[in-house]
Amino acid sequence: MTQPPYARIAGELRRRIQSGELGPGDRVPSTRAITQRWGVAMATATKALTTLRQEGLVRAVPGVGTVVADTAPTTRSDASPAKDPAVRTRIVHAAIALADAEGTAGLTMRRVAAELGMPTMSLYRHVANKEQLIGLMVDAAFAGEPLPTRPPEGWRARLELSAAIQRRLYRAHPWLAPALNLSRPLLAPHGMRHIEWALAALDGLGLDADTRMHAAVTLFGYVRGQAIDAEPEARATRSSGITGEQWMAAQQDRMAALLAQGRLPHFASAAGEAALSSTSLYEFGLACLLDGIAARITTVRPPVTAN
């Protein structure tokens, strides 16, 4: 029985994939390329690729096209593992370096590949897309400064240490805080260890599980929120050449004119005495947050005695 055109095209591409001629991550002919090569209609070309997709041999990559799936079988004896951990680590570290320097807006698979001297399509053998890459970057960033194996004494000191480490990470990687989203959290194991650390610190203090979880996530969200402006500030500094401090200094005359109108008397009075900075705002907010947790504690943990 004569095969329909879409089946013959799918069969030819299937053979090339299974023989290893097309390896995981390699791009397969587009629908337009299929119509031109085999002289078939667009609907036939689409059906051929749909057949391969249903068989799990290919997958669509936004902005790239249809590529051979990582799980596609191959008989090529020299084929490399589709997800070599060492190669993936190099990709992630290169992406972090780019994001540290320029933010994530211009971070693309093509740009990362260029930094590594690799074909763009080869990256897709190790990382599915930009979304997965950013998730791996987030986890690697948190892994770069792990929590200590021996925590300090006292729940408050433990939470302060976790917050300090997070803040240092956000300062070192301005893109990190915006990459996180508490509404749709990334499953980043090294980042989640900060939640685990906080839960352990609050255990045995008379707080129920719901309160402890809310406290742990609120602390995580507070530190992230304090750092959320880091990337826009870095981007503004790069584009304008003016630092945040320089920008604030340039607004002093306008601020003085506004306050001189007398419509904001309390603001004007307090502004004359207050000394606001990113550090003072962070420390004040953190102290208030921890004071609020302390007010809910009903059990005093007995001190640890040496043997």
TrEMBL record:
Pfam families: GntR (PF00392), TetR_C_1 (PF02909), TetR_N (PF00440). Coiled coil: none annotated. Residues 108-127 bind DNA. Residues 85-145 form the HTH tetR-type domain. Residues 3-71 form the HTH gntR-type domain. Keywords: DNA-binding, Transcription, Transcription regulation. PROSITE patterns: HTH_GNTR, HTH_TETR_2. The lineage of its organism: Bacteria, Bacillati, Actinomycetota, Actinomycetes, Kitasatosporales. CDD domains: WHTH_GntR (cd07377). This is TetR/AcrR family transcriptional regulator C-terminal domain-containing protein. InterPro entries: Bact_HTH_transcr_reg (IPR050679), Homeodomain-like_sf (IPR009057), HTH_TetR (IPR001647), Repressor_TetR_C (IPR004111), Tet_transcr_reg_TetR-rel_C_sf (IPR036271), Tscrpt_reg_HTH_GntR (IPR000524), WH-like_DNA-bd_sf (IPR036388), WH_DNA-bd_sf (IPR036390).
